[in-house]
Design a protein that fits this description.
Strand order of the largest sheet: 3-2-1-4-5
Shape: globular
Order of helices and strands: HHHEHEHEHEEH
Number of strands: 5
Largest sheet: 5 strands, mixed
Distance between the termini: 52 Å
Number of helices: 7
Radius of gyration: 23 Å
Strand content: 5-15%
Structural class: alpha/beta
């Protein structure tokens, strides 16, 4: 009799644990949209404020000058800058200071005629670590709704870039409008703010 009562008690406990009320309390996986929001918030806290570009698609290209694959990709990113609408797309070149400094940025700008493009200096590699970039170059594409669309951890050619632009619904420039190479005065360049104490991966 005692064994039967014990068995019944165990069964009741098991059923209680499997009830809808208890299942509703189980931890849920973080939705991708929340991860995107946290990552973008981390970018802002680390000094890269993307709010001025709200409503635009955004390309964040992480590069170093010593990376030969970055060098192969640069002409295509310049072609992207010259081809697609600046009202719909913002390109931010994130220079990761992996043994480099601002002189390397100036060298890249000069070599690939990127003087009118926006550059962000990741001096302490905080942005690089926060985004968990796997290597160089890595391109992070954010859609017009402010959500991460795709990450490409390799050098891109222009055909690849065009496919992403189609996915992001970014139009090409009107050849009769603003001359190529003219600076975009509709949004300020990215600014760097004081760095808070953010641990790697704390936002995920």
């Amino acid at each position: 009799m005692k064994k039967m009562l014990t068995a019944l008690c165990c069964m009741a406990i098991a059923l209680a644990l499997l009830s809808p009320a208890s299942l509703a309390q189980e931890p849920q996986a973080t939705p991708e949209s929340e991860k995107d929001t946290k990552l973008l918030e981390a970018f802002t806290q680390l000094g890269l404020d993307l709010m001025p570009y709200e409503g635009k698609a955004i390309l964040l290209n992480f590069f170093t000058e010593w990376c030969p694959y970055c060098e192969l990709e640069m002409p295509y990113i310049k072609q992207l800058f010259d081809t697609y609408s600046r009202d719909e797309l913002e390109i931010i070149m994130v220079h990761v200071w992996d043994g480099e400094d601002e002189r390397n940025t100036e060298s890249v700008k000069e070599r690939y005629s990127m003087q009118d493009m926006h550059f962000f200096e990741d001096r302490d590699r905080a942005l690089y670590f926060a985004a968990r970039i796997p290597g160089f170059p890595t391109s992070v594409f954010i859609n017009k709704d402010g959500k991460m669309e795709t990450v490409i951890p390799q050098a891109m050619n222009f055909e690849m870039i065009e496919l992403v632009m189609e996915r992001l619904d970014v139009g090409k420039k009107d050849p009769n409008a603003t001359p190529q190479g003219a600076p975009d005065l509709t949004a300020p360049p990215p600014t760097r703010m004081p760095l808070p104490d953010i641990r790697l991966g704390a936002f995920q």
